[in-house]
Amino acid sequence: MIYSTILKKRLLFAASIAFLITSSCTKIEGVGLEAEQNLLAVNSSDTFAVSASTFLLDPLPSAGQGGLLVGAFENEYVGQTRASTYFRLAVPDLSTTFTNDVQFDSLTISFFYNGYSYGDTTQTMGISVHRLSQAIDPKELSIALEGDEFPVFASGETLYTDQEFAYAREPLGTTRFSPKPHSKKDTVSIKLDQNLGHTLFGMVLSKDSRLTVEDDFLDFFRGLAIISEPDAKAIVGFKDSIAFSLHYSYERQSDGRRITEELTINMGNSDYQYNRIETERSNSLLRAMTAVNSEIVSTSTDSRTFVQGLTGLVSRIRFPGIRETLGLGATAINKAQLIIETDQLEYGFYPPPDSLILFVANRYGTPTSLVKNASGASLLAVYQQGSTSGGIGRGKYVFDISNYLSALIKTQTYDDEESLLISLPTTTLLSRTNVLQVAQNDNKPAIKLNVLYIKTQ
Description:
Blueprint lengths: L1 H20 L12 E2 L2 E11 L2 E6 L10 E9 L3 E9 L15 E17 L5 E7 L41 E5 L9 E5 L2 H12 L8 H7 L3 E5 L5 E6 L3 E9 L6 E8 L8 E7 L14 E3 L8 E3 L4 E6 L3 H5 L4 E12 L12 E7 L5 E4 L10 E2 L12 E6 L1 H9 L8 E5 L2 H4 L5 E3 L9 E10 L1
Antiparallel strand pairs: 1-2, 2-25, 3-15, 3-17, 4-5, 4-11, 5-10, 5-14, 6-9, 6-11, 6-12, 7-8, 7-10, 12-13, 16-24, 17-23, 18-22, 18-25, 19-20, 19-21, 19-23
C-alpha cells in the first residue's frame, strides 16, 4: 500500500514535468494518471479562434478631462478626426481700483501647451475664437435605456463629444501658428475684437452686475468655442487654464511713467468645458461605419481592426467555441494570454498607444465592466517594442486573461453574445485621439489567444 502511494506521487510529478516541457504543443494525448477514477489530462493550445471586428461606441463623455483639444488629422485607415473645444468663462474679480486716467488697450486670449499632440506638428495650423450664442447645456443618457445599456464610464449629467452649441460665425480673433506641444514657455496668444474689449472694460469700471452676478454673467457671456481651420494636420492639447485678458494702462503719479497692466478672466467650471469630436470616414477603410452601422467585420477592413480615443472606436473580440472545447467547470486554466500585434511606426506622427485595457461588453456592445485579474485590479497591457532582427518588427500588447477565462468556463449563465472590447485606458479614451491599427496576419487580424490548461476527463 505504501509502495503504491509513493508510485502514484512519482507519476503525478512526472506528468507535471511533462506538461512544462511540452507547453508549446497543440495537444498532448496519453499523459495522465488514474486518480479516483478520473483521468488527469494535461493539455496546451495556441489555436483558439478569435473573431474580431471594429466597433463604434456611442458618443463619449468628454467634460472636465483636463485639456483643451483643437486641430485635425487624417489617417488612411480611420479617416479624418477633427477636434474643437468649448468652455465657459469665470466671473471676473473686480476688486482692482483704477485711476481716473486709465485707458483700455486690448483684449487677448492665451493658451498654454499641455504636452499632448497627435499628427504632423511640423505644419502650421490656424484656429479661431468664437463667442457662443447658446448656453452650454450638459445632458443625461436616455432614461429609456435598461441598466445594462449604460457604459461603465458614463453616469449622471455631462457633456458628450457629439454635442454642438451655436456660436457667432464671425470670429472674435484668429491666428496661425507652428505647434510646439512640448514647450513649457511658449503660448498661443490671439488678439480679440477691440469693440468687445471696450465694452467689457467699461463694464469693469462701472462694476456692472453682468460681471459680478454669475447668472447675469452667463446670460451676457455664454462662453467661447475654439475652432480649428480645416487644413490642420495635427490635434494639439492645451491646459484647461486660459488667460482671457483685458490690457489697460495708466500714468503713475510718482514718476509720470505710463504703466501697462491686465485684468485676467479665467476659465469657468471645468464641468462645462468639453471637446467636440467630428469624423469624416468616406475615404478610409471604415467608410461604411455609421452610428447605425456600428460594427464592421475585419474582412471588410483589410483584415485589420482599429482603436481610437474620443471617436469611440474599439476592437470587439469573441472566442467562438472556446467553452465547448474546454468544457464547463472541468478545466483548470494554467495561463491564458491575449496578444495583439501592431505594425504602426513607433516614432512616426501616429505612434501606437502606450497601453490598452479590456472592457467586458454586453450583447449591444456596451462596455459594462473592466476585465480584472485575480486580485481585482484592472488589466493593463503596455506596449512592447518588436524585435527588428531580420526586418521591421511588430510591437505588441499582452494581456493575461487567465482569471477572465476561468470564470467564463465556469459560469453556467454566461451570455454567448458577450464580448471583449480592446480599448485605450478610460482616461485616455475620453481625452485623447490616439489610434491603434491592429496588424494583419494570414488574412486575419493579428490577435491570438494562447491557453495552457489542465483538464479532468
